[in-house]
Design goal:
By secondary structure, the chain is α+β, with helices and mostly antiparallel strands. The protein is 39% helix and 12% strand. It contains 19 helices and 10 strands.
């Protein structure tokens, strides 16, 4: 204020203030207080806010969307038809498969379709929540809540390094047919951009080089080697796109995190594979989804005669244990006289079996006893095999099947559960017959999922069969011995174990 010494301050603002009178300072403060607060821009790393969404329409409609990758020359776009009840989390998967991305980077939806969407609020993902960000989750927003009428737009970005922005515009609203697929690509242009190609600018340069004569001649040798073999950015195979979209078979309850596209349809990932959802690459997930489709299409019907035949060996051993249990030798094996009785009563005796009837050298009995213990039907106590409490509660053949199928794929380690689940899925889908072929198919699937059994980077099919032994034995009568109906029973049981709520 006037007359107050500043001791020769070098701060220019302080020098100006010191030259003002008290009345002038008060006037400036009043002007500042009257200013409207500035709304901060929202974007990466800034505070976010919840998004106010309207109530969804009373009836689910078919929405025709145009999904365009911004900044790419020539333009890359897709036209897709989806149900309005598709969540943004599901739409992310549709975009990935329709455009041809690999789902290997982060993504984000903005509520605004403006050229600068980061000025508006964005929908958060599980990863955002883990980082402490706030806002409306993308799984809580239906498409028909954010795109209401033709012309409405939202923005989507994939890969926060290359910044592949997409504009999603609602073109039309129509009636949704009861048998309509969850997502159908009806048009488009150009192949999808290549991952990690430097964003729209870098990829456009590659496309321009492709038009040279000869193609790609201007590019450095290492760039040409990096490009996929027979790469053609102008080629769009709509049949292949729709095949990928059909592979998104994941759940009826909209609860699947990674592939919930068939949430209102009849196919979904089994609970045993939940640990894999969101952790495997899109092509692998699509492969698993295709197996789910095939497995759910298989014959899973079992009549009372089928149930009696399936349960017979398990029920027999439980009833043989009775009140007093099955006597064991000092080494813990079923006594030879009882082994011989089991072989005879269950018609399991074979010429190649040892005549001494020791359980150790009698695989059908040894396997049946092991399976019953693993499934919790029998328990060992000192020198006897006793009936478990849950086995005593079983009255009918269907009770046996229900109990066993609901517990067969449940293990403490979720990865072990997934191994059993992939094995049962491969069997139910009819991809292989016989233990070795099933082991080979399952081993290949495990490698694709990044699950290792034994030596990292390679899996011996027999090592896989060792892990899933109980599942294999149960699906084949508890003994590993197949009968004429064995494969049909095994497929039906595998389906029931994968989707027990449908049994």
């Amino acid at each position: 204020m006037s007359g107050v010494s500043t001791n020769d301050s070098t701060d220019p603002v302080r020098r100006v203030v010191d030259q003002l009178s008290a009345e002038e300072v008060l006037a400036v403060l009043e002007q500042i207080s009257a200013l409207e607060p500035v709304e901060p821009e929202l974007g990466f790393g800034l505070d976010n806010r919840a998004i106010d969404l309207p109530e969804p329409p009373a009836e689910v409609a078919a929405l025709t969307l145009r999904i365009e990758v911004d900044g790419v020359v020539p333009g890359v776009w897709r036209q897709v038809v989806v149900g309005g009840d598709l969540t943004l989390e599901m739409l992310h998967q549709v975009i990935q498969h329709a455009v041809g991305w690999e789902n290997s980077h982060l993504h984000r939806f903005w509520a605004s379709g403006d050229a600068q969407p980061w000025r508006s609020a964005y929908f958060v993902t599980d990863g955002d929540l883990a980082e402490g960000e706030l806002g409306t989750h993308e799984r809580d927003a239906r498409l028909d809540q954010v795109l209401r009428k033709p012309g409405d737009q939202i923005r989507y970005v994939y890969d926060f390094g290359d910044d592949w922005f997409h504009t999603i515009r609602l073109e039309a609203v129509g009636q949704l047919a009861p048998d309509a697929p969850p997502a159908l690509c009806t048009g488009g242009a150009m192949a999808g951009p290549l991952e990690d190609s430097g964003g729209p600018g870098g990829y456009s340069d590659l496309v321009e080089a492709f038009s040279d004569d000869p193609p790609l001649a201007r590019l450095e040798g290492y760039v040409r080697e990096w490009l996929p073999e027979d790469w053609d950015p102008t080629e769009l195979d709509l049949d292949r796109v729709n095949q990928r979209l059909r592979g998104l078979a994941a759940g009826e309850d909209h609860g699947s995190e990674e592939f919930p596209i068939l949430s209102q349809r009849e196919n979904r990932w089994p609970v045993a594979l939940e640990v894999l959802q969101g952790s495997v690459a899109s092509p692998v997930a699509a492969r698993i989804s295709a197996l789910c489709v095939e497995a759910r299409a298989a014959d899973g019907s079992l009549d009372e005669e089928d149930l009696a035949e399936i349960v017979r060996p398990f029920r027999y051993l439980v009833e043989l244990a009775g009140q007093d249990g099955i006597p064991l030798t000092q080494a813990g094996w079923i006594k030879p006289t009882v082994v011989k009785q089991i072989l005879t009563d269950l018609d399991l005796d074979r010429p190649w079996l040892a005549r001494r009837h020791q359980e150790l050298s009698t695989p059908p009995v040894r396997n049946l006893r092991h399976t019953c213990q693993e499934l919790g039907l029998l328990r060992r106590r000192k020198d006897r095999l006793l009936v478990s409490r849950q086995a005593k509660a079983l009255a009918t053949d269907r009770d046996y099947v229900t109990l066993i199928t609901r517990s067969l794929l449940v293990h403490k380690d979720p990865l072990v559960t997934a191994i059993h689940g992939l094995f049962a899925l491969t069997l139910a889908a009819g991809r292989a017959d016989g233990s070795h072929d099933l082991g080979v198919e399952t081993a290949d699937l495990l490698l694709a999922c990044g699950i290792h059994v034994g030596t990292p980077g390679e899996i011996d099919p027999w090592d896989v069969m060792g892990v899933v032994r109980t599942t294999w034995m149960f699906l084949h009568g508890g003994t590993g011995e197949s009968d004429p109906d064995g494969q049909r029973h095994a497929v039906a049981l595998a389906r029931a174990a994968l989707w027990p709520d449908d049994a």
